[in-house]
Amino acid sequence: MDFLIHVDQSSGVALHRQIYEAFRGAILSGRLRSGEKLPSTRALSKSLGIARATVTMSFDSLLSEGYIEAAVGAGTFVSRSLPEDLMRPAMETGDSGSLSDPVLKAATPKVKARSRGRKRKDGTESIVSTGEPSAVQGYRLSWYATALRSREWLSFSPDEPNVQLSFGRPAMAEFPMRVWNGLLLHHARKRNLALLDSPANAAGFRPLREELAAYLSRVRAVSCQPEQVIIVNGSQQGIDLVTRVLIDRGDDVCIEDPGYIGAQKAFEAQGANILPIPVDKNGIVVDKLKQHEREREGFSPQLVYVTPSHQSPTGVVLSVPRRLELISWAKRVGAYIVEDDYDSEYRYKGRPIPALAGLDHAGTVIYIGTLSKVLFPALRLGYLVVPLDLAEVFTRAKWLADRHSPLLEQQVLADFIRMGHMERHVRRMRNLYEQKRKLVIEALKTHFGGAATVLGDAAGINVVVRFPSELSDDEIVARAKTAGIGITSTSHCYLGESPRGEFQINYAHLKEDAIDSCIGTLSKIANASRI
Fold first, then answer.
1. Quick one: pLDDT at residue 114?
2. Based on the structure, what is the number of domains in the chain?
3. Containing domain of residue 47, as a range?
4. Residue 175 — φ and ψ, nearest 5°?
5. pLDDT tens across 139-168, in order?
6. By the 8 A CB rule, do 64 and 107 touch?
7. Is 301 contained in some domain?
8. Do 393 and 428 fall within a single domain?
9. Rounded mean pLDDT of the chain?
10. DSSP 352
11. Contacts for 306 with CB less than 8 Å, ≥ 6 apart
12. How buried is residue 426: exposed, middle or buried, by Cβ count under 10 Å (0-12/13-18/19+)?
């Protein structure tokens, strides 16, 4: 028989693999039917102009996987034992042949490319094939996945390391890499084979948990035992574990408005009933929580999520009276407080305010810490401090999520803290970031005059600024990106109506001599007219 396939000798894909994929796709799509005879390896190699051994290698793979069968003296045939419902000609399913990969076209889109979501009473989505009305086969997403799919908020774009002012990056060039590498090498040279195994305790490397407990006692006034510390892969995993352990669908969860979008979406995806609580110059408005309590009979929120040391995104710091008021209220109504303390190390005026967990003596606060802003984002190590009676269940949840965090990095981090490197690094970076913040505010005054308003307290590694413009927030962000400036609109942080022209500007990783020019470029963009 004649069978036309195309091979590209300039492609990076091996020829035998191209032939294999072509035949496999043709069989699964129905182009080659069960029992149909295939061309001989000699004839096929001649027609393609390639070595017969290459074709034979392809046929051997198809034969070993059961797509084809050989009969001595008769030739090679498409296997007669393939399930008929997997071998549908493309015309029967309405496939226009728009997919270039025959394997992908045959294997997955037959149902999914022409499917639609059907909502169940509980809100989950049943994905039902429309290609075969007489034999409908349903595919169901979980409630969690449906919640993620139905809320368009997260997109993954290519890395852009050269963008200035991009959100959330610390000054990684200032990290003491030589010290860190020396500690890594020290542990690697020990040839400790235990590093290659899974640790017995999913809560994390015991010496690191001890060092973190001592560190938090010194710098955040958080008194805790190592048994309360759970090592996680960054604060976002900590938030995820909180949702898994504490939240059921329909539970009331109070969050700051505006607030951190990663927490918002984690709670929504778990099915929580989100109650936005406004933020003023002193942080979350506890009186609004009390108002909900008065107005809703049986009001009993499961938790309140806050970022008290440097509110995300406004930058305000929760005052001490407001902290004590929040703890008292949460204790009375039986709600947990989830304290996300993501960059508390960087405060540039006044004395550091103790963490909520340091003021709590009733097991009300669950504390989340991360090292992404202090050290470097790729480290992917953070920690939870949970009430002692919750330590075991959180450890089990951590084990189910990913078994354990990287062990070598945990050992290095334990040494880095124990030897004083982390606190020295934080002190140095605090001075550097304070200077950069001053330069950003000076540049905003120079280029925007009185039109720009800086919000929040002198803390963190970013500032929030409002300025007027004829352009929409999206247009400003897009034009800034084109100019190599990565600012972020705060509009996505608001659950209700968001103010126009409010942006987060990250300055931590900028060189000091680049700050003025970046803000100057941003000013020109903001003052441009809409085309």
1. 36
2. 4
3. 15-92+97-106
4. -70, 135
5. 778 877 777 776 655 665 555 544 554 556
6. no
7. yes
8. no
9. 84
10. P
11. 256, 283, 284, 318, 326, 337, 338, 339, 340, 356
12. middle
**Could you tell me which residues come within 8 angstroms of residue 179 by beta carbon, excluding any fewer than 6 positions away?**
416, 421
**CATH at 24:** 1.10.10.10
Cis peptide before 258 (omega within 30 of 0): yes
Same domain, 266 and 141: no
Three-state SS at 376: coil
Residue 373 is predicted with a pLDDT of 86
Task: Assess contact for 58 and 13: CB atoms under 8 A.
Answer: no
Mean pLDDT lowest for which of 68-72, 129-133, 320-324?
129-133
H/E stretch holding 273:
strand 273-280
Residue 104 banded pLDDT, cuts 50, 70, 90:
very low
In a domain, 331, yes or no: yes
Q: Tokens representing 340?
A: 């996300």
In which order are the strands placed within the sheet that holds 488-489? 453-455, 462-466, 502-506, 488-489
440 and 322 housed in the same domain: no
pLDDT of 134 higher than 50: no
pLDDT for the residue numbered 106: 37
Closest CA to 401 of 204, 214, 209: 204
Is residue 359 packed enough to be buried (19+ CB in 10 Å), middle (13-18) or exposed (0-12)? middle
Closest CA to 422 of 505, 488, 525, 345: 345
Report the distance separating Cα 24 and Cα 468, nearest Å: 59
The CATH number of the domain where 515 resides is what?
Answer: 3.90.1150.10
Q: Which residues make beta-bridge pairs with 464?
A: 455, 504
- Angstrom distance (rounded) from CA 266 to CA 243: 7
Closest to 210 (Cα-Cα) out of 340, 394, 383, 404? 383
pLDDT tens-digit profile of 424-476? 999 999 999 999 999 999 999 999 988 999 998 888 888 999 999 999 999 99
Percent of the chain whose predicted confidence (pLDDT) is above 70: 85
Q: Where are the alpha helices (DSSP H) in 40-176?
A: 41-48, 52-64, 102-107, 109-112, 143-150
Considering the domain architecture, whether residues 296 and 210 belong to the same structural domain is answered as yes
Given pLDDT bands bounded at 50, 70 and 90, which one contains residue 321? very high
How many angstroms separate the Cα of 205 from the Cα of each of 209, 242, 356, 389, 419? 6, 21, 25, 20, 17
Given a contact cutoff of 8 angstroms between Cβ atoms, the answer to whether 350 and 308 are in contact is no
Q: Helix H segments across 118-246?
A: 143-150, 177-189, 206-220, 235-246
**pTM beyond cutoff 0.85:** no
